[in-house]
Structures are given as structure tokens and as C-alpha cells.
Design a protein that fits this description.
By secondary structure, this protein is α/β, with parallel strands linked by helices. It is 44% helix and 15% strand.
Length: 257
């Protein structure tokens, strides 16, 4: 199915690995030009080279710490005009309230929560002036089904769900859509890190992390490419009327007894 987005310019934050890299590959496969940003310049360059090897599209990169206001502004100054923004950069730690120092809590929210909000502030006005554009926020199922063992992430994700819905409701009057995706356990390096923390909380032994991933819907975690394919659809004219919505992708796990 042609998504009708060939030639669009897509900015993906956290684009060097995991869901972000999968999104880069999926949009490139549709003929989109890319801007990729993440902290590590070497990892970012390797990711861009890998996508270029498969797809004949323009790929630009900018290494930046998007937990910092000035770094987000630097990214926007370098690439002020994009058609699609995929907010994906985030690394909120697992743990209970007593496990996460307030400085770490703030650091995590500065990247994912305030990072998403700020980048929307920076890029939405240009899209609204043009009368076209799309923002896709990669959030997380913890915002729908919060747990004490991931309290920092659950609270941050819940805030972003509300933010996405409210922004989408307002932005559509200018022809811009804002949507979100809530992935559950997705097969990435971050999934393993999270599982190790959960195993330490549950069993007192992080090496038993695989035991925390049993009983998943369909007997497996989500593939990052599945989230990326959904992001492409939601950002495209094919998914035009899906707006202000945050799509839960958890295989129905939230409703299992």
C-alpha cells in the first residue's frame, strides 16, 4: 500500500537504535528523507549508513542531548522545516518511588516528557502555518496501566498521553495531526535493561530477567518494526482521520486476567 508520503522530510529523535531506528527504516522505505538525532555521534552515523545502504533517500544527522533545552533549540535551528516529527527519545528508569533519586527523575522527564513538549512547541507553528504536518509521539503502555515498579515512566507516559490528545484536538483546525503510540514490551536493548531491573525487584537477581518476559500475548514481545509500520500509517494521508488518539499496542495484554 502506497502511504503517499514519498519526498516528505521526517525527523526521528532517538533514531540511532530500537524503535527510532526501525521508524527511520520504515519511513525511508516509503521514500522519505530523514533527519536523525540521538546522543552518540558514532552510533548515529552507523545507523544512518545502515539505512542509506538499503534506501536511496537523503539522511542527515545531528548528535544532541535532547534532555537540554538549548540542544533541542539547536536541532530546530539546524532543521527548522520538517513535515513529520517522530518524538521517540527517552530513557525513563524502572524502579519504585524510593529507588529513583529526584535528580534522576528530573533528568528522565527532561528528555522524554519535556523533550516531547518542547519539540512540539518548536515544530508545530511551522506545520500550522503551512496547513499540513504530522507529529507522532512514541509513548508507552505504562501510561495506561501504571505500576509501582515503573512509577517514573508510568507517570511521565500518562502526562504525554494527555498532552498528545489535547494537542491533536487543537491542531487539527490548522490541518495538522498529532497522534501517539503506546508500545508494550518491545524487542530492543532497552527492553532487556528494563527486564533486568524488574527481575532485581521481583527476584533479587537481575540475571533472571528472562523470567519477567513470560506470558506475553502471542508468546513474544513486539517487534520494533511493528511499531514503526504503525507510525508510518498514522503519519500518512492513509491515516488522516486518526488524530488526537494514542494507539495501545499490547496484544490485548492490559485486559488479560
Amino acid at each position: 500500500m502506497d502511504m503517499n508520503i514519498a519526498g516528505k522530510r521526517v525527523l526521528v529523535t532517538g533514531g540511532s537504535k530500537g524503535i527510532g531506528l526501525a521508524c527511520a527504516e520504515a519511513f525511508a522505505a516509503e521514500g522519505c528523507d530523514l533527519v536523525l538525532s540521538s546522543r552518540d555521534a558514532a552510533t548515529l552515523a552507523a545507523a544512518a549508513d545502515a539505512v542509506r545502504a538499503k534506501h536511496q533517500v537523503r539522511i542527515e544527522t545531528l548528535a544532541a542531548d535532547l534532555s537540554q533545552d538549548e540542544e533541542r533549540e539547536r536541532l530546530h535551528a539546524a532543521f527548522p522545516d520538517i513535515d513529520i516529527l517522530v518524538n521517540n527519545a527517552g530513557a525513563i528508569p524502572a524502579g519504585r518511588l524510593a529507588d529513583i533519586p529526584i535528580a534522576r527523575w528530573k533528568q528522565a522527564w527532561d528528555l522524554k516528557v519535556m523533550g516531547y513538549v518542547h519539540l512540539c512547541q518548536l515544530y508545530l507553528p511551522v506545520m500550522e502555518a503551512r496547513g499540513a504536518g504530522a507529529i507522532v509521539n512514541i509513548i508507552g503502555m505504562a501510561g495506561r496501566a501504571p505500576r509501582a515498579g515503573y512509577i517514573c515512566g508510568g507517570a511521565g507516559n500518562a502526562a504525554l498521553i494527555a498532552f498528545t490528545s489535547a494537542l491533536g484536538a487543537a491542531a487539527q483546525t490548522s490541518g495538522v495531526k498529532v497522534v501517539g503510540i503506546n508500545p508494550a514490551a518491545t524487542k530492543t536493548d532497552r527492553m532487556v535493561t528494563q527486564a533486568r531491573t524488574n527481575a532485581k525487584l521481583k527476584f533479587g537477581d537481575e540475571e533472571r530477567w528472562a523470567e519477567t518476559l513470560t506470558g506475553l500475548p502471542f508468546g513474544r514481545p513486539i517487534e520494533a518494526s511493528e511499531i514503526a509500520d504503525l507510525a508510518v500509517f498514522l503519519a500518512s494521508p492513509r491515516g488522516h482521520y486518526v488524530n488526537g488518539t494514542v494507539v495501545d499496542v499490547d496484544g490485548g495484554g492490559m485486559f488479560r486476567a
